[in-house]
Write a structure and sequence with these properties.
Layout lengths: L16 E4 L6 E3 L5 E3 L7 E13 L7 E3 L3 E6 L7 E4 L4 E3 L4 E3 L4 E4 L7 E11 L18 E3 L16 E4 L5 E3 L11 E9 L8 E8 L6 E8 L2 E6 L11 E9 L9 E8 L3 E6 L2 E2 L7 E7 L10 E5 L2 E3 L4 E3 L3 E11 L6 H6 L3 E4 L10 E4 L5 E6 L2 H9 L2 E4 L8 E13 L5 E3 L3 E7 L8 E4 L3 E2 L3 H6 L1 E2 L5 E4 L8 E10 L6 E4 L2 H7 L2 E5 L2 E9 H10 L1 E4 L7 E10 L9 E6 L11 H5 L7 H5 L8 H41 L6 H15 L20 H24 L8 H20 L14
Parallel strand pairs: 8-34, 36-45
Antiparallel strand pairs: 1-4, 2-3, 4-5, 4-6, 7-10, 9-31, 11-30, 11-32, 12-27, 13-27, 14-24, 15-20, 15-27, 16-17, 16-24, 17-18, 18-19, 19-23, 20-21, 21-22, 25-26, 28-31, 29-30, 32-33, 32-34, 35-38, 37-43, 39-42, 39-44, 40-43, 41-42, 44-45
Helix pairs in contact: 8-9, 8-10, 9-11
Length: 763
């Protein structure tokens, strides 16, 4: 504040002091009228009275100085404001999904009290920090036509170590022969190279150049460095001079890397005359108003006698002076031109990235703008207020379409904002806001797998002694080291439930050594306790199942499942199906065989009779041969009986021709008839036994026939010695009767019992 004194005694009209008359205000005032803060301010507005003190005392009282009327002072407090973008959440954000809003909680503060926003522009940039973005740059590789002008190093993806070409800017350059490259650039081609450059001269220096051979110095195409700019020149033509259209002719990029004396990778994908995309160190160059421009020009006209063109590296050929000019200073490695007729637009090669920024859920409104580059790594947002910019930023989404999400590591997203206040001709920049996006390394869950037998066929006797259900079980894991994976428990469940006579047996010494507990239940067995895979595998292989009672079932199922200790991962289930082989009595023989018993009084034959209690397989084989054996026996028996019958009839007929008056002869004949002719042999083929009866002995039969023939001869001789009229004495008669009985007994002894078939068989 300031006060003046109109007293004539005060020539300079100044006052000597100022005072604040209002008590308890956080301000003070000095003799010059300057008001300052004496205490921390808590309010937004303060009012107090200030008075001025005269330098001279009053005329009435020399000890009192005059004081002016109080002046009312009002102080309005404006809080300090610094335009910026803030966020209450941490600057690091962990990405766990392929669709993440990264600016949900940001706040844009432009200090509205001091600046009425007219325009606000933010540039959001994703920097992967060298992590693979998944952009399909290699889709642009042109393998069909590749022209190497400077050789590549061993690893063309890294800065050259040994293979490169140096240019001194004075006289080092080379002309490419037509046999190596025709000089004809297609509408779509790519240029790749590593370059190290430190020249700060303002003159233009050419790396590659396509120029006329004669008369003119016109450049058809060139890649050149000028100060801090990289330029690509492509002139359309030559065409008729009647063409008055202009075409994109020169693309200019302002690059900070050009003159830093470091190796950098440069890749240009050309789709003439539409687009040219530049990649520096594999990062897509983001064009802006201050770092990129395209120059348009007329097409080259047709000029006579200009001759052919010359393609050179390191300088340009000037046809007018027939010499090289504009030499390049620096080092080059891996300078390659690739081209193909059907090369697709370069933009399609980089659109399909697997890491990018997106704004999928926003609609265009008046006063809002949002555009991106071709691979959506950079977005430019424009709004008319800080609130509108906040809404735009909240729609920005980080996308990661890798399967699984990755690669692991940190990448960053930055926001650079420029604000223009209403009524001002300049803009001011807000501090850059950055957010780190972290993707943790994916820990793949450890899998545990069981493998073993699935079918068992034990007998009841084997079950009574015990069987190993999981003798061949194996436990596998996909962990790098098997001994780092533990199992917490394994359970064996049975279907149906166990009966009183059924139980599992686990060797207790294995359990005690490895601190594994067992729990036997009605439904099975549970093994619990932390143990290695090898420990559980050994215990399961030694676990036995015993059934002391006859099984009341045929099929039983055992299921085995284990659980990993670290992540509680459940293994697959191994099902073992047990089919019990029931023990059955031997099958009884057929009824027909049982009825074909042969009863004889001959003890030798009884010992050789067929035993019915043989195995079923042997019985089946013998039954198969019975029809043939029966047929043979019957045929031999009938033949033997017929032969015997004929022999007896011949003998009987011979005796009838002998006329003997002796009554003893008649008795002898009658006895011979009764004994020989009256013999009946009956065989019943239906009552034969299974065992083959030995065939009749034919040799014995021939012996019998010889004996009968001998007997008939003796009778004939006796008949011839006695006349019919001669009577023998009683002694002779008795002798003849005894002889007949002796012969009869002799005939009975001649039968071969072993050669005869037994049983009633009627002939």
């Amino acid at each position: 504040v300031e006060a003046t004194d109109d007293d004539c005694l005060n020539s300079n009209h100044r006052v000597c002091d100022y005072q604040i008359k209002t008590a308890n205000v956080p301000f003070r005032i000095d003799s010059n009228g300057s008001i300052s803060i004496s205490k921390p301010l808590t309010g937004d507005k303060y009012e107090f009275d200030v008075v001025a003190v005269d330098c001279y005392p009053s005329s009435s009282n020399a000890n009192v100085k005059l004081i002016s009327e109080p002046a009312r002072v009002t102080v309005k407090i404006i809080k300090s404001c610094k335009p910026r973008i803030t966020d209450d959440n941490p600057s690091k954000l962990t990405i766990r999904s392929d669709h993440t809003h990264i600016f949900d909680t940001v706040h844009v503060d432009t200090c509205d009290e001091t600046c009425a926003v007219e325009n606000i522009v933010s540039t959001v940039t994703l920097d992967t920090n060298g992590i693979d973005s998944g952009c399909a740059l290699e889709q642009c590789t042109l393998d069909d036509h590749e022209y190497v002008f400077v050789p590549k190093d061993v690893d063309s993806d890294r800065a050259p170590q040994s293979i490169y070409m140096s240019f001194d800017g004075l006289n080092q350059a080379s002309i490419v022969q037509k046999t190596e490259f025709s000089g004809q650039l297609k509408n779509t081609f790519a240029i790749r190279m590593w370059m190290k450059h430190s020249n700060s001269e303002k003159r233009s220096i050419r790396e590659i150049c396509l120029n006329y051979l004669l008369v003119k110095n016109r450049h058809h195409a060139a890649l050149l460095v000028q100060s801090g700019y990289l330029k690509l020149l492509i002139r359309k033509g030559p065409v008729s001079s009647n063409d008055k259209n202009v075409y994109s002719s020169e693309w200019v990029w302002k690059l900070s890397q050009l003159n830093d004396s470091q190796w950098h990778s440069y890749k240009l994908f050309v789709d003439y005359p539409n687009t040219v995309d530049l990649y520096v160190d594999n990062q897509l160059f983001v064009p802006g108003d201050d770092n990129y421009r395209v120059v348009h020009d007329f097409a080259l006209p047709i000029i006579e006698q200009t001759g052919d063109t010359v393609f050179s590296v390191g300088a340009c050929w000037h046809g007018r002076f027939a010499r090289m000019a504009q030499y390049f200073t620096g080092q080059l490695s891996g300078l390659v031109i690739q081209q193909k007729e059907e090369l697709s637009r370069s933009s399609t090669c980089v659109q399909n990235c697997q890491q990018y920024l997106d704004m999928p859920d926003i609609q265009k409104e008046a006063g809002l703008e949002f555009v991106s580059n071709v691979n959506r790594s950079v977005w430019t947002l424009r709004a008319e207020s800080s609130e509108s910019m906040e809404q735009l930023l909240k729609h920005v989404v980080y996308r990661n379409t890798f399967e699984p999400i990755g690669p692991s590591g940190q990448r960053s997203v930055s926001i650079e904002t420029a604000v223009k206040c209403l009524g001002e001709n300049y803009t001011y920049n807000l501090p850059t806001f950055s957010r780190r996006l972290a993707i943790d390394e994916q820990i793949r869950p450890t899998n545990i797998e069981l493998k073993g037998d699935t079918n068992l066929h034990p007998t009841e006797e084997a079950l009574n002694q015990g069987i190993y259900l999981f003798q061949h079980v194996s436990i596998f894991t996909d962990a790098l080291k098997k001994d780092q994976v533990d199992i917490s428990d394994c359970s064996i469940n049975t279907t149906p439930d166990l009966s009183n006579g059924e139980h599992f047996i686990v060797p207790d010494e294995n359990l005690e050594i490895n601190n594994i507990r067992k729990d036997l239940t009605q439904t099975g067995l549970v093994l619990s306790g932390f143990g290695s895979i090898d420990t559980y595998q050994f215990i399961l292989q030694q676990t036995a199942f015993i059934s002391k009672t006859p099984a009341k079932y045929v099929d039983r199922t055992f299921s085995l499942v284990c659980i990993g200790a670290q992540e509680q991962i459940t293994t697959n289930e191994v099902r073992v199906r047990m089919h019990v082989e029931k023990q059955t009595q031997p099958a009884p023989p057929p009824a027909a065989v049982l009825n074909n018993k042969l009863y004889v009084d001959n003890d030798d034959m009884k010992e050789n009779l067929f035993d019915i209690d043989v195995s079923s397989s042997s019985t089946a084989e013998k039954l198969t041969a019975w029809p043939i054996a029966i047929g043979i026996c019957v045929s031999v028996s009938i033949a033997s009986v017929l032969i015997l019958y004929l022999v007896v009839r011949i003998r009987s007929a011979h005796k009838q021709r002998c006329t003997v008056s002796n009554p003893g002869d008649d008795m002898h004949s009658q006895m011979e008839w009764e004994d020989d002719i009256g013999l009946n042999i009956i065989v019943n083929p239906l009552e034969e036994t299974k065992k083959s009866v030995p065939p009749m002995n034919v040799q014995n039969m021939d012996q019998i026939m010889d004996e009968y023939e001998g007997t008939s001869s003796e009778d004939d001789e006796e008949c011839g010695e006695h006349s019919p009229n001669e009577y023998s004495s009683e002694e002779d008669e008795a002798y003849e009767i005894n002889e007949i009985h002796a012969k009869k007994h002799h005939h009975q002894l001649e039968w071969d019992d072993e050669a005869m078939e037994y049983g009633p068989k009627k002939v």
